[in-house]
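Quick one: structure for this chain?
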Amino acid sequence: MGILKKIVMAGLIIYALFYFIQSYVVITFPYQISYPEGFVLNQSHLISKGESIYRGINEYPYLISNYPPVYQFLCALFVKLFGVSFVYGRLITFLVSILICWLIFIILKNETSREIAIISALLFIASSYIYKNNPFFRVDMLGLLFSLMGIYMFQKTDKLIFGTIFFIAALYTKQTFVSAPIAVALYLFLTDKKRALTFVVLMLLCYIAIFFLINFYTKGEFYRHNFLYNMNTFIFKQMAKHYIWFLQNHAIIILFSVIFLFIPDIQKKYSIFVIYFIISALVAVSVGKIGANMNYFFEIIAVSCILMGLAMKRLKEIFKDEKTWAMLINSALFIQLLLFLHIPFFTEPIITKNELTNSKLLSEVVHNTDGKIISEDAGLLLMNNKPIIFMPFEFTQLTNQKIWDQTRFVNDLKNRQFSLIILSFDIHCQVDKERLTPLMVDAIKENYYIGQVIGEYFLYYPVIK
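Got it. Here's what it folds into:
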């Protein structure tokens, strides 16, 4: 084994170790890390109590559930058994990410070689995007697993129902996981139009039947929460910025994926991954939507790792000279590992003892505060048996879209109806316009003062007049 190859393999193993270390730190951290986590945990908590997570938004609590319920239902089982905690949802996400690596390995093992399959699988968790966004209490990784399982089942069996089940599960985990079923439909259309029609009809019947059932049960709220309330403003500049960052960070695996598209004599059975790559790249453009982030690239990262493996195998056949091939591949992989550069406790999210101390202090303040509390950190409220009554980001977007009337809430701010408001910014210096409207900001400025600053959070208390 050459020196460069040893360095690459060592780098992949080190990044895998980093992922395990970071996962352990995140899973065992008892407080919220990512903004959506507390609200998704609250949805699981409500389901565990037999309550609907799709309610009207004209009365308190002002909450929306902008994802389908599969992940929340799964987490609700653990909430029911063990109580409110971030541990179980994060553990599910971690285990799912390992299953995704295993799937990438299984898909490639028989098509390439064991070594290429291992490298490709490890590249997935080596990605800095996967590292920085996992294993949070969020829906994305489970949806990705279902999508890849659908593709895998489509490859392994002639029966379309098995793949369809997983695709439906993905769509009811997160509604943006459309790339895999669209890829299958297009592939079948190009190869067998009759089967393509069967697949599309089967998908539509299953999806629509479940949709109408849930929508009927929730009196139309499922549609409103998952679609109407999800139409955040699209910003082209944000999309371009995120896409450029993504391409810079994943330059090599994307380059090899694109190269594979143009390699002559690609076997027909591989073209499903080519179509999947193109569709997932197009769907990732939705990262331009306000509130979107790195998680919108998870699917293209996974399929790029698969195409990277296929490209390595095909290039080996083309070059024939193994030394030249090895030098090219290992040099490329080494550059990719450098682009992925991240280190636990130095690369965000950074979770330290200081973070734990600050979270404990905040938790004590919340626990000892009577009355209504508004908090960006919903987990603090939930873990102290305080009702979550408002989602800052989501309802600011609904106001901007003229879907929700903020008048009552703003009046409650003016009348100092809230005992405590916890925000991640000082409204007197720099306002996060995505999380508060101008009227909300003015009402807080005039009727609340900053009584404490704990960690990254500013605590606003009502002015006594």
